[in-house]
Every structure is written in structure tokens, then in C-alpha cells.
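Q: Joint fold for the lines below.
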Amino acid sequence: MIQIENDQVWLADIPKSETIEFTGLLPKYKRLLNIQWVIFFALIIVGLTVAYFTFDHIEIIWFGVALLVWFIFLMIKFSFIQLSFPNKGYAIRQKDLHYRTGYLTHKTISVPFNRIQHVEIRQGFISKMLDLAVLKIYTAGNSAHDLSLKGISLETAEEIKMIVTSKVIQDV
Amino acid sequence: MFKNSFDTPQRQSVTGTLFFLIMSVQKVIRIFWPLLLLYVFKGNASKMMEPKWLIGLLLLVLILIAHSILTWYNFYFLIKDKEFVLRKGYLKRVVIAIPFEKIVSINLKQGLIQQALGVVQLEVDSAGSKKKEVAIHAISREIAEALKEQLASYKKNTSNTEDSIVNEEVEEEVETILQLSLKDLLRISIAKNHFRGLLIILAFGNNIYYQLKDLFESEVNLAADRTENFLQHSSTLAIAGMIIFVLLVSLIISMTEVFLRYYNFNMKSFVNALSMQSGLLKRKNITIPFSKIQRLKRSVNPIQGWLNISNIQLVQANSVEVSKDKDKVSIPGCDDGKFRELCDKFYDDPFSQQTYDTKPQKVFLRRSFIFLFIFMSVPVFALSLKFNWMWYLEILVPFLAAGIAYLSYYRRSYHFSSDFLKINSGLIAKDFSIIEVYKVQTVHLKRTFFQRRNGTANLDLGMAGSVVRIEYLSYEEAIQMKDQILYKIEESNKKWM
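A: Joint structure:
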């Protein structure tokens, strides 16, 4: 067993969070988000219209209300996408990886390299066209708390994957 | 003592064929019972006696017997090259080999059938094998114990080579830590949370009531009228009786539960593992290596506090997500001394380190009050639209909300030392959690819009199998704690599982 000094709880000379410099996500990612959500809202409006015309006993007023709700949600979602984008970013230090996101609730997720189980790169249809990729990082922690690094180019994703896997192997 | 090296392939105990036979009969019945029911209810039962059906049945029985014999005959297990190997299957041959270092835990189980046949089931949990069941279903207890010991000892050897300084002189030291007598079980069942039992009564009571009502509509109405009459005349007595009855029934429910699960509970500690046996109908045997323990939770409700017992839960790491009850192991009925003893066993000196103690910021009190107030007011308002007198309950709501908010604020405190994090929380029960800092997997820092305004933050520590929430620290504290935790994880080269 390594004897660890018991007297001091807070160690002084350790890397500080304040010094982390986050790299912003690619602006293309905002476009991807916009496209994805436009498709989502378009599908909903199509669904609503189809529902209105197939069931004739729905009154026009309810259709109007549904449209209004739809519009409000759309406005909120898109303003959140614009507003939260500057806050999103990632940072890689020597021994850990950080991802920052959120608008109403700011979240910073930190994963030390020596706790990473495996790494996965994903690319959807639209993101392929935009040359974007998602780097999913799996830990043994709760799956809801796994980190997915979105909004980076495939090249960057491969690069980070290289860094992470080499560090993981080094540790073992 | 049974000596066996397990380096030659071995079959299961011969009674295993019977076990397989019973299991396959069970399976067949499970598949065909709707058909059987159909036959019986259509009055075609006599048709079953016709020769062609009888021959079919005979064939089926023969096939089942052949199947179980073949299954038994072709099932081998052995230990080879630091691997635990299973070979099985006669139509499709399967070979499963688990390297010792991948073995997470070894459990012995005994179901009703296995108990009757005098055999036990040995299950091996391993890291990485995707839910593939690695189990020997029917071997005699001596062989199972010997095999388990072998697997465990190999594990110990490998871990010894890794950090060679540790416990060389310590022999296989077995020590019984906790045994529960009938009296203990009784105390545990009294102190149990009876709400579950109560819910069961409500659920079933309702069901039974409706079924009875369907059957004897008029009688029930009469009885209901009578009881109503009775209630009006001697309401206090009746209500007291009702309460006593409900309490008694929920006590009985808790008692059966406790006796079924923890009958003859026996916990032993080895050099670096813990083994537990318990159960009345189904004996369960669980082995947990100390290093796999991710979190120790202790919970004491007021009655338990009065009886000086507590419930301890161990959260175990499994790289495969197995069923929940395997990850979380409960140890009932530990008193304060036993709790300390367990903590000292698992951890290296958990209570003497200097700690940094902190509590949620005062804002937490206000936030939880507002949240609870709204949360409780909504149903009251909704119901008061129907029942006018519900309005008066709204007067109680702020007091109740304030009480709960204060209690949860009062109970909550965090104690951070160089190796451990201890968390006190709870509402009615006192909860305590202890984790080793280097076993944290991810750190989340969260700040809602309001928290950014009042300078607080939440920390979520992702552990294997659970999440530890640290709420409403001041932002500086949270940042500092996060940095410390990350540093400790990164600096430690101890195995977290």
C-alpha cells in the first residue's frame, strides 16, 4: 500500500479547472442541429395535418391550438440551439477529457483517460455529408452519464480517438 | 476435505440427469400448457387416452430422457491454463473459457429441485462475457466448494503477483462476521419499511374486494352496510382495530419476506473477499471481492435506530450490466460495531483521516421548500375542485414542505478526505454512503440558471452501478472538489475493480 499523507485534504499543486481552455464546436454542427430539428418539426406538422384531415370530428380551434403549441416549441428549440451553441465545447488535457454543454443548465462532463472503457465513432447520414462525427466515450459509470462528443470533424474524432486509446493502453 | 485439481474434464453429478429431466419437463409444460388446458376444458381429456396420443407422449418422454442424459453426458468442466473451461452441447458444441482474471464473482445457488436432489448450482460472473450464462447446474456441494475455492485461490495468486508486498504471511483466513438468529430476523422484520406491505394489502385488498363483490354481490352489500353502521356507532374502536389489523398484516408480509430471504444468514470474510449465504427455500451464495465494492450505503430508519440495527447495501461493479439485485447486495441487521468492522475490512482506515466537511448552501433549503410546496399543492388544488374540504389541507402544505425541506437539509452533509468521500443524507431514515474517490468514473458539474445566479453548483459522480449526487455546493467548493477528485483518479494506478 502506498502511504498517502493524511494531514492534508486539499492538495495545492494540481491542475485547475479554471485553466481549461475549451475549443468551440464547428459551426457546421449548428447547421446539422438546425437541419435535424427542421426535419423533426416538419414531420410533426405533417402528422398534425394528416390527423386533422383524416378525423373529421376535430374542430378547427384545436388544430389552431396544436399549431400554436407547435410554433412555440419550434421557437424555443431553435432559439436554444442558437443560444447554447457558444457554450458548447470540448477540451483535452494530458490526462482527461472535458465536454461542456447546455444553455439553461450548464454542464461540464469530465472523464479521466484511465477510466475510459472504449471509444466509438459514429456518423449519421446528414453528418456524413457535412463531414461531422460523434465520438462516444464509454465508461463503467452509469450509461446516462457517458460522454458523446458531438460537432467535431471526422478527422478530429479520429485524432482524439488515437490520443485516448493510446493513453488507455499505456495505463494498462 | 475433498481434494480435486480439476485439471481433467469432469461431468456433473449423476443426479444432474434428473435435474435436466425435470427442467426440460418444466419447459415442455410451460410451452404446451395452453394446449393441455384446451383439451381438458373441451372435455377431450378422454381422447388423450387413445393409442396414438399415448405413443406420442411416450416418444416425448423418451426424447426428454435422452436429451437430459445427453446434456449431462456432454457437459464437462475443467481448469486449464489459468482458465475455467466449460464444454457443453451435443447438437451444437459450445466451449466457454473464462480466464481467471476476468472472473468477477462465483456464486453457489440451490433451488428447490436442486435442494431435493442434493446438488448445487455454481455460477460464474465474468467481466466481458455478454450475459452468456456460465453455470454448472448440478454438482455436489463438496465439489462446488472445492471448485469455488480453487477459482478464488487462483484469483488471489494472480492478484498477489501484481502487488507482491501485500499479505504474504496471511493464510486463507476465514472468519464469520455476521450470523442472524431467528430473534435477529424478527427484529429486522419489525424495523422494515412497512409501506411496501401496506401497498400490497391495498393492491390485493382492492382486488379481493372486487372479486368477492362479483361473486356475492348482495351479501357484500349487506356486510358493507353493516360495517358502515358499525363504523358510525363505534368509529374510534373500529378504526383502531383496522389500524392494528393493517399493521399486523404488513408485519406478517415483511416477516415472510425477511425469513425467505435471510433465513440462516451467514457472512464470512476471506482475505480479500466476502461471502454470504442465506435463504429459506432458495439458498443463495454470493461472493464479493473487496476490490469490486464501489459504494457502501447504510440506512437506519427510526425503528432500526431504536433497535440498534441498520441495513447495509454494497454496490458492486460489473462490466456487464447484470440484473440489478446482483449488483446491489444487502446485508441486514448490522449494529454499529458490525458496521465499523465491515468498513475497516473493506477500506483502509476510513474514519481517521482528516476531513473537509461541508453542507449544501442555504439556498438548497429555499429551493427545496419552493419545489415541495408547488409539488404538493398541485394535487391538493386538483382534488379541491371536486371536494371542497380539500382546500383546508392547503393550510398544512407549507408547514409540511418546510418540515421536509429542513429535514433533508439538516441530514445532508458531505465529508471529503484524501481517499474517501462520505455522504450523509435521508429524510426519515438516516442514510450514509462511503466511496473511495479513485473509483469514480466520471465527474459532472452542473449549474442551472438559478444556481449560476446564487453561486452554487451540483456535482454528479458517476460510479460503476450508481451515481453519487452532491447538491448545492458553493461554486468554488464544487470546482475545488472536482479538481481534487479528477487528480486522485488520474494519479491512482490501483485497480478500480
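Q: Anything notable?
A: Chain A has a mean pLDDT of 85. Chain A has two domains: 27-84, 88-171.
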